[in-house]
Task: structure prediction
Amino acid sequence: MLEVTCSKCGSKRLLQSLEDLVYAKFCDKCGQSSTCLSVTQILAYLEHRPVNVTPKNTEGLREEKKSLEDHNQQLQITIAEKTASLHELEAKTGDLKKHEERITRNVLDQETKLKSVENDIKSSADRIRELHQEQQLLETQDQQLKSAVREKTTYLEELEAKIKNLNTREKEVNQRILLQEEKLKSTENNIEQYNNRIRDLKNATITLESQKQKLEVEISSFTDQNRQLDKLLQDKRTQLSELETKSKSPREADQIEPTPDGRGDLEQTPDAARREAHSLEWLGIVAKHREQYDKSEQYYREALKIRQELGDEEDEAFTLSLLLDLAKERKEYAIAQEYGMRAMEIHTRLGDKQGEKKIAEALRAISNIEHPTD
Result:
């Protein structure tokens, strides 16, 4: 008997003869064409099979042997084909195993990725829940903000109305400020003018104080000179009385009349005339101090006449300055300016710069009084 083994499932079956091998191509269990019988098994079967050698069956044996040899060749060819097919199948099986390994690895990778994706999905779901909660919180805050915006909008509208009112008040205040600034500028200009006038008055006061000091000195000198003059006049009157008594008749004495200034026709020396002019100027100053302006002018004019007769221009300019001050005191500004111009001519002619400056200051003060600037 022959034992045949399936190369697929490994099941075994027994064959009674080689003829049964044709029908044993397919396995009884798996049904696959994978039964396998090696040549060695066939030869061993033939060696142990009992052979009845008779003349009758010799020819049959030969034919059977030939058939077996042909069948063996076919089997060898089939075995070679099956072997090649087996090798191909084994190669394909190796490729399939490799492919299976790759698939397995891919599956593992995909599972790993799937787990990672699941974790990501889970974290995303958690994040979505958190975002949903944040969204709800944001919606609540948005409502609060909208309410706050409405309140702020109302407050801003109120502020805009207040700002408009403030702008209107600011314009009014600016206009008032402009008016006040204009008034202030006008006041500053007036103050500056008043300061200039005060400076001029101070300068005039300083000049007058200087002149006053000079006049006090001159008054003191005039007092002494007046005393001497009174004594001299008394002596001359005594002498005149004696002469009238001794050398002239009463009729001739009546013909000698004193002059309006209290002097006779007797000639005087220049020094005596100067002393008399000084005395008259002093008397004019005293009369001016007593506000006897007419009497003061009379004394000044008599002194001026003596100065002009003597030709003392410097003293004449001084007397003209006394007349200028008197006219200014009486508010006769045109007359005062006339006296000032006459005194200025004399000082200019004499080259007296200091005298020119004093007269110019006095004339400027008169001009400021007569025509004040705004």
User: Anything to note?
Assistant: The two ends are 162 Å apart (CA to CA). Residues 271-374 form a domain with the Serine Threonine Protein Phosphatase 5, Tetratricopeptide repeat fold (CATH 1.25.40.10).
